[in-house]
UniProtKB/TrEMBL annotation:
This is pectate lyase. Residues 47-269 form the Pectate lyase domain. GO terms for molecular function: metal ion binding; pectate lyase activity. It holds the Pfam family Pectate_lyase_4. Its main location: secreted. Its cofactor is Ca(2+). InterPro entries: AmbAllergen, Pec_lyase, Pectin_lyas_fold, Pectin_lyase_fold/virulence, PEL. Signal peptide: none annotated. One of its GO terms (biological process) is pectin catabolic process. It comes from the Bacteria. SMART domains: Amb_all. GO terms for cellular component: extracellular region. It catalyses: Eliminative cleavage of (1->4)-alpha-D-galacturonan to give oligosaccharides with 4-deoxy-alpha-D-galact-4-enuronosyl groups at their non-reducing ends.
């Protein structure tokens, strides 16, 4: 008995030294009253609307595409593989998984020209059979919060598979000047093309993009974690693990603030020079690198002030916090 007490005391001592709070040590419990941090802080989703539960694609589409506000609770697997494209999501919707297996499998979801959408606690898988669709596409939209989701493809990321990389598209594309976006506490994994802000070197409207990525895991990907053209993006407290080509790219004059992230086994953690005629800008600080290559920052951003309050975790505790807290399958309290 004494041995177990001693072990417990040692563990508690380690916890205190590392500075973890009791709240950080609890399993994440999500509620409908949670608020986003970052550029998407004004997002309220379907607040005030009716609460409905769906467990099949027909009901999901019905409530997701109507104009009225709805809070849509997803139970089990929503199979969209027989659809002809991504499922469109209308404005003023909260879509949140309420069972451990809550997921959208097949074609993914599409937000085009909408306002005020929350997507939380869902597993969304991008299938090889659908090479022209992202798991989530956000186009010309604003006030969007994507939180505690697990986004992946069924494509193995390995050098010998590079010839197959175009058989699947990205996990999350934020394009055509979308702004007021927060991407938080998600897992992005097993994808050649992970997430990008800005659709091309000619899409100058993406200079309006305002996106925050915080407390996400990016693992076993090739690139675009994210890749940014033109826009302004804040990237903090993310965990990068086993990235084949590069993690973060700033292109076409994009402005990136990159703070307190943890990079592990990443060939090129941060670059401002990649396959575009103009380099981007980066201000980086507080990041930790473990068995990584060097950064390639050709243009340093002197200052970038974001218009919201946020708290930074120290980079060395990020892997612990995210391994415990990121991704789908969390308990949800409906209040």
């Amino acid at each position: 008995m004494r041995k177990y007490i001693i072990v417990l005391m040692i563990l508690l001592g380690v916890i205190l030294v590392l500075g973890f709070s009791q709240e950080e040590l609890k399993e994440n419990v999500l509620t409908l009253n949670d608020k986003p941090v970052g550029f998407g802080e004004a997002t309220t989703g379907g607040a005030g609307g009716k609460i409905v539960t769906v467990d099949n694609v027909n009901d999901f589409k019905n409530y997701a595409q109507v104009q009225e506000p709805y809070i849509i609770l997803v139970k089990g697997v929503i199979d969209t593989s027989k659809e002809t494209g991504q499922v469109n999501i209308a404005s003023n919707k909260t879509i949140i998984g309420v069972t451990p297996d809550a997921s959208i499998i097949g074609w993914g979801v599409y937000l085009k020209g909408v306002n005020n959408v929350i997507i939380r606690n869902l597993t969304i898988k991008n299938k090889v059979e659908n090479p022209k669709n992202d798991a989530i596409t956000v186009e010309a939209s604003q006030n969007v919060w994507i939180d505690h989701c697990t986004l992946s493809s069924d494509m193995v990321v390995a050098p010998e598979r590079e010839k197959d990389k175009d058989k699947v598209d990205a996990l999350l594309d934020i394009i055509k000047g979308s702004k007021g976006i927060t991407v938080s506490w998600n897992i992005f994994e097993n994808s050649w093309k992970c997430t990008q802000v800005g659709s091309s070197d000619n899409s100058t409207i993406d200079a309006e993009a305002r996106v925050t990525y915080h407390h996400n895991i990016f693992r076993n990907t090739n690139s675009r974690n994210p890749s940014v053209r033109f826009g302004t993006v804040h990237i903090f407290n993310n965990y990068y693990q086993n990235i084949l080509l590069y993690a973060i790219a700033s292109r076409m004059g994009a402005k990136l603030l990159v703070e307190n992230n943890y990079f592990e086994t990443v060939a090129l953690p941060i670059t401002t020079q990649f396959e575009s005629p103009q380099d981007g800008y980066v201000k980086e600080s507080g990041n930790l690198y473990w068995e990584c290559g060097d950064n390639n920052i050709t243009q340093e951003l002197k200052e970038l002030r974001v218009p919201y309050q946020y708290e930074l975790d120290e980079a060395d505790v990020v892997p612990y916090l995210l391994d415990k807290g990121a991704g789908a399958g969390k308990e949800v309290e409906i209040k």
